[in-house]
Design a protein that fits this description.
Structural class of chain A: alpha+beta
CATH architecture of chain B: Roll
Number of strands of chain B: 6
Helix content of chain B: 40-55%
Helix content of chain A: 40-55%
CATH class of the largest domain in chain A: Mainly Beta
Largest sheet of chain B: 6 strands, mixed
Shape of chain B: globular
CATH topology of the largest domain in chain A: Jelly Rolls
Radius of gyration of chain B: 19 Å
Distance between the termini of chain B: 61 Å
CATH topology of chain B: Nuclear Transport Factor 2, Chain: A
Largest sheet of chain A: 15 strands, mixed
CATH class of chain B: Alpha Beta
Strand content of chain B: 15-25%
Number of strands of chain A: 15
Largest interface: A-B, 32 and 28 residues
Oligomer: heterodimer
Order of helices and strands of chain B: HHEEHEHEEE
Chain lengths: 338, 156
């Protein structure tokens, strides 16, 4: 099944007329690397291009700046940024994913088709020109708008932010109350330290948020995947019919059928696959950079005291989480995603 | 003439066996040395050196640690927690194999980690400790100029 999905996907994705715009690296300093969607790792250098599926990571002394068709993206240290894409309203759109760390976005001109911004806990639609996104160690997000408007959405609730407004979105929960962003630079590191301390003080509560977030991704992946398989079967049947038309009515009729029936269905099928992939990759980001990091932090903390009830209870929940991920998300991933 | 040929072939076989045995013994001695090096660095609290020896991404049990600062935090965390590897001895060593990933976790992610990021010449080294029979496993690469830790599992 997985092989069939993957093979079909290349054809279908190739059939999509629109694809997300690439982003050019305009500045890179210190520890900044790119993981290409093929899985290859390389240092980030000025002039490099990030395409859909590529990830830029900065280390403790790393900085990078990207330009994506008029969007300036300033990536701070200890940040993980991925260029993704998904289908919405019949169009393939860019999604700028801030998995961890802090990024400042500046839209130099608004076209009405601005890429969405996502983190582990929210999706933001942009009608603004300048804002910052902070993606915390516990999966929470802090978003602060300098100018323009940003709509933040999570768990079915949305909040409109205007200039000098901000909001926090905890993982697996709706956005909190809006607050006024101080004019001076926001202290992201202090906010993140507090989030990390709270997560380590109560890892079981953190697991509840992680489980809830995974459940949401699983639902989306299952829904899109089921519809994709249905469309794929329909597409296969239509292709058989085209062969029959070609034999019985000739090449011209078969070409007409291809254009009128198969091509639109192929595009729709490709978009469904694209969205199933989008949610699978988003789940992988959350699993790697929130759940996995929590595991490793706790492991080093409890390595000399493995019988501690906090650790043993966490392990039991974590094992269930992993097993769920392995069953529902991993089959949608390929080696290069890892 | 025929007798000489047979004698020569016999001698060559013995030489090959001796060479193989000495290679195996040399390999075991390298593996033991590498195990002792990692144990010593942990016991001396040299987290920075361990981080510098670690590949990125790095495997901790079944978790892939992607970011270098996180790998450094792992080593400094276990050192800070007072973790020691007393009486480290090499229990067993095995070359990289297609199913090596199962020693860490039987998941798609760990299998992919081995495929993508672990060099084929790496070895799986299992350390015994004098601490209530607990063991540790390392994925260790030892080329002419560089020793690399790809992963750590345990104590188990």
């Amino acid at each position: 099944m997985k092989k069939a999905i993957t093979a079909a996907a290349f054809v279908l994705i190739g059939a999509l007329a629109l694809s997300a715009a690439p982003a050019d690296v305009t500045y890179a300093e210190g520890d900044a690397s790119i993981k290409l969607k093929t899985g290859k790792l390389q240092d980030a250098q000025i002039g490099d291009t990030l395409n859909t599926g590529d990830t830029l990571r900065t280390g403790k002394d790393g900085l990078a700046e990207l330009d994506q068709k008029g969007v300036s993206i300033k990536i701070a240290k200890n940040t993980v940024f991925t260029l993704m894409e998904r289908e919405q309203g019949g169009q393939t759109s860019s999604v700028l994913s801030v998995t961890l760390g802090s990024i400042k976005f500046r839209y130099n001109k608004l076209t009405g088709q601005e890429p969405m911004v996502r983190t582990n806990s929210m999706v933001a639609g942009v009608r603004g020109t300048e804002f910052s996104v902070f993606s915390g160690d516990d999966g929470s997000t802090l978003i602060a708008v300098d100018s323009g408007q940003v709509t933040v959405e999570s768990e079915g609730k949305s909040v409109d932010l205007a200039a000098t407004e901000g909001v926090e979105v905890p993982l697996g929960k709706p956005p909190g109350d809006k607050f006024t962003v101080p004019r001076e630079l926001m202290d992201y590191s202090r906010w993140n330290e507090d989030k990390l301390s709270a997560m380590l003080a109560d890892p079981l509560a953190a697991m509840t948020s992680i489980e809830s977030s995974l459940a949401e991704y699983e639902k989306n992946v299952a829904d899109y995947n089921a519809t994709y398989l249905e469309y794929k079967a329909r597409l296969d049947a239509k292709r058989q019919k085209r062969l029959q038309i070609s034999k019985e009515q000739g090449a011209d009729e078969a070409a007409k059928y291809q254009q009128e029936v198969i091509t639109p269905l192929s595009l729709q099928t490709g978009r469904l696959f694209l969205n199933a992939r989008y949610f699978s990759l988003a789940a992988l980001s959350m699993r790697r950079f929130v759940a996995g990091r929590l595991y490793v932090l706790l492991k080093s903390r409890y390595i000399t005291n493995p019988g501690d009830p906090t650790w043993t209870q966490f392990l039991s929940r974590f094992d269930n989480f992993l097993s769920s991920f392995e069953q529902s998300i991993a089959p949608q991933l390929v080696v290069a995603d890892i | 003439m025929h007798f000489h040929r047979r004698k020569l072939a016999g001698a060559a076989s013995v030489a090959a066996l001796v060479l193989l045995a000495s290679c195996a013994s040399l390999q075991r001695s390298w593996d033991q040395g590498n195990v002792e090096t990692v144990a010593r660095l942990i016991n001396e609290g040299q987290a920075d050196k361990l981080a510098a020896m670690s590949a990125a991404p790095f495997l901790v049990d079944g978790e892939i640690v992607t970011l270098k600062p996180d790998i450094a935090s792992f080593w400094s965390g276990i050192v800070k927690a007072g973790f020691k590897v007393e009486g480290a001895t090499l229990v067993q060593a095995a070359p990289f194999a297609a199913d090596s990933y199962r020693q860490f976790a039987d998941t798609m992610e760990v299998k992919s980690f081995f495929v993508q990021y672990v060099k084929k010449e790496a070895r799986l080294l299992e350390l015994g400790t004098s601490q209530s029979g607990k063991k540790i496993m390392l994925i260790f690469g030892d080329s002419w100029f560089k020793k690399t830790i790809y992963g750590f599992k345990g104590p188990y």
